[in-house]
Write a structure and sequence with these properties.
The chain has helices at residues 15-24, 31-42, 55-64, 124-128, 136-144, 167-178, 200-207, 221-227, 236-243, 268-278, 303-315, 340-346, and strands spanning 8-9, 65-66, 74-77, 83-88, 94-102, 105-109, 113-115, 130-133, 154-157, 190-194, 211-215, 254-260, 284-289, 319-322. By secondary structure, the protein is α/β, with parallel strands linked by helices. The longest helix is centred in the last third of the chain and has 13 residues, at 303-315.
């Protein structure tokens, strides 16, 4: 169902907000629970589908609101089964979302912003510039309107944008995903990524139980600054020091994302510094192969070097994996998402 601009969008509403609209429509209080279940557990795409609400009640509700799901406008399918979807947003922009099936797992890589302010050297989204935050409804629409919604096992906030730069809406979305009235997901099925933003990262760690994934990409401050301007406002040393204040020895997980560039950040000097930096922190490191983007002269590390790097970290007590690259042929792999061109075509 396409959003009606004259009506309030039900997806993205908290239980209290749903109760407020139920009161405004003069419907019985228990209707709020029915609506929430239809929205977040049954996946209703229209108010008419909410059949345990009276016909008159549905008519009253429809006067004020719509479900507000907006289906993807386009999709691209990779030879490895990955699917990249193009979703519209409330403000007429576009955002990309990636569905990644893998045997008994199915992960959705969701976006939190249109474009990104962080401007990391190796990321296509950053070249797009920043075009706006996604609303809670826009974030959840990537799940609610996903054709494979019922197959999902995990969600990662690793699409377009910096989640901590849209923290209110990201936290609200994860709360609906994990709430009893909402999707009823365990927070352990959700990972939120960040470059590390002062105060925002701490707030997320305090207010959420979801996993955290930090974009490291170099443990050396001066080099990380060249790759990631965000190092200036919150250094990787400060990020790790903050993480060490929290308990990751049980179910909640802290991880570091590390894209490897040949001759840049893949030496044993870097590996030793990661071991030193993370000492005392229960964490894992995910090594990622770089995918070239236009006008960026960064060569990718070969697999032998990545394996040696992994083996060194593992031998020194840092659990390390090499992440399999998915969807590269449809530009859906790490760092390749961008909707700038599509947005211009849609204007």
């Amino acid at each position: 169902m396409v959003k009606d601009n004259n009506k309030r969008r039900l997806i993205g509403m908290t239980f209290q907000q749903i109760k407020d609209i139920v009161a405004e429509a003069a419907l019985p209080k228990f209707t709020a629970s029915q609506i929430a279940k239809w929205l977040y557990q049954s996946g209703a795409a229209s108010i008419d589908e909410m059949t345990n609400i009276s016909k008159a009640g549905r008519a009253k509700l429809a006067e004020l609101s719509c479900v507000g799901t907006m289906p993807p406008l386009d999709c691209q399918r990779s030879k490895d089964g990955t699917i990249k979807y193009l979703f519209p947003t409330e403000n007429g922009k576009f955002v990309e979302t990636v569905y990644i099936p893998d045997h008994d797992r199915a992960t959705l890589c969701v976006s939190s912003q249109v474009g990104c302010k962080m401007n990391c050297l190796f990321c296509q989204t950053g070249k797009q510039g920043f075009e706006g935050n996604l609303t809670v409804a826009d974030i959840l629409n990537q799940i609610c309107a996903l054709p494979e919604r019922d197959k999902l096992t995990n969600i990662v906030f690793m699409g377009q944008g910096e989640p901590m730069d849209n923290l209110d809406n990201v936290i609200a979305a994860t709360q609906i995903l994990t709430a009893d009235y909402g999707f009823q997901w365990s927070p352990k099925r959700i990972t939120v990524s960040s470059v590390g933003i002062k105060n925002k990262l701490k707030r997320f760690l305090d207010e959420s139980e979801c996993h955290i994934a930090i974009s490291m990409h170099s443990p050396l401050p001066e080099q990380r600054l060249k790759l990631m301007p965000a190092e200036r406002q919150m250094s990787i040393a400060d990020v790790v020091a903050l993480l060490k204040q929290y308990d990751f020895t049980h179910q909640r997980r802290a991880s570091f994302e590390y894209i490897m560039f040949s001759g840049v950040n893949d030496s044993m000097v870097h590996a030793r510094e990661i071991v030193r930096l993370t000492a005392g922190l229960e964490c894992r490191v995910n090594l990622i192969r770089f995918h070239a983007i236009p006008d960026v002269d960064l060569p990718e590390s070969d697999m032998k070097r990545m394996e040696s790097f992994r083996d060194y970290l593992t031998a020194h007590g840092v659990f390390t994996t090499i992440r399999a690259s998915r969807g590269q042929d449809i530009f859906a792999a790490c760092g390749l998402l961008s909707t700038a061109k599509k947005a211009m075509q849609g204007d």
